[in-house]
Amino acid sequence: MPDPTFPRRGDDRGLAAPGRIKEIASAANPIVKDIRQLAQKRHREETGLFLVEGLKLVLDGLESGWELKTLVVSKAALQGGSEVLTRVVSRAVAHGADVVEASAKVLEAIARRDNPQSAIGVFRRQLAPLKGLTLAAGDVAVALDRVRDPGNLGTILRSVDAVGAKAVILIGDCVDPFAIETVRATMGSIFAVPVIRAKEGEFLAWRGGFSGQIVGTHMAGTVDYRTPDYHVGATLLLMGNEQAGLSDPLAQSCDRLVRIPQMGRADSLNLAVATGVMLFEARRGALTL
Ligand code: SAM
């Protein structure tokens, strides 16, 4: 059934797979209400959709082949003649996405902040299956035990992307990788890095068949993090929860427990910083300027 609130206009523009364009001025509009609900994890889980703010990130998503369902753009910026915005609208329509030309009030309501970006995309999320993860010699992936902080997870996804690591496995009760704060912190890497979710038991079962090495990071680790050979086979870096570190079963599943030496008063590094240090060490041989 065609949606009467979203009349088709794409055909008028002669585009191959046209989406629909609609103007919305009121934050009370039901389409806006639906999009706003994506701030809540429950609604993201139910719909499989998530929000992406800003033209660059929306373009990253389109270029990475992710499904854009709805594009919300600033009507004022469009009328102001923003060329890049006009191009993104055309691409979104050609992709079959619905386009909402929105008032400043509507954009502020969706972004839940003043001075929001001129474009917000509603994308369909993608998660990869654990059993599909295969790592070749020299490959590196990261597994995170119960990561709780969206900024940490976003920063880690960005670092994983930056070093050419293959995937991030989220073990147990982790923050949603598609939370707006996480997506923001990834700076577009959400579209580049396969994300896998697994319960601890599933991960441990998978680990049984994994032929590479698992290098766990632990404050009680006795091995310097620069000691393991990261080039012989595949490596999975296992990182602990921000407060509790690695669970005992996960720590016991590691081939090695390494520590990053520290000086000064801090008793540990921030999780995202520690992951960055590990990633750049494990991928050192593969990175050149
Ligand atoms: N109180 C926690 C503990 O004792 O494990 C601190 C957790 S730390 C903030 C979060 C995670 O970052 C750790 O579980 C570990 O994976 C990693 N990490 C932080 N500093 C580290 C270090 N110096 N060496 C190895 N791993 C570190």
From TrEMBL:
**SMART domains tied to this protein:** SpoU_sub_bind (SM00967)
GO MF entries: RNA binding; RNA methyltransferase activity
Supply one GO BP term. Answer: RNA processing
| Keywords, in A-Z order | Methyltransferase, Transferase
Domain RNA 2-O ribose methyltransferase substrate binding span(s) in chain numbering: 51-129
The record ties this protein, via InterPro entries, to: Alpha/beta_knot_MTases, MRM3-like_sub_bind, Ribosomal_eL30-like_sf, rRNA_Methyltransferase, SpoU_MeTrfase, SpoU_subst-bd, tRNA_m1G_MTases_N
Any Pfam family matching the protein? MRM3-like_sub_bind
Any single Gene Ontology cellular-component annotation? cytoplasm
Family indicated by similarity: Belongs to the class IV-like SAM-binding methyltransferase superfamily. RNA methyltransferase TrmH family.
Please give the name of this protein: RNA methyltransferase
From the broadest rank down, the organism's phylogenetic lineage runs: Bacteria, Pseudomonadati, Pseudomonadota, Alphaproteobacteria, Hyphomicrobiales
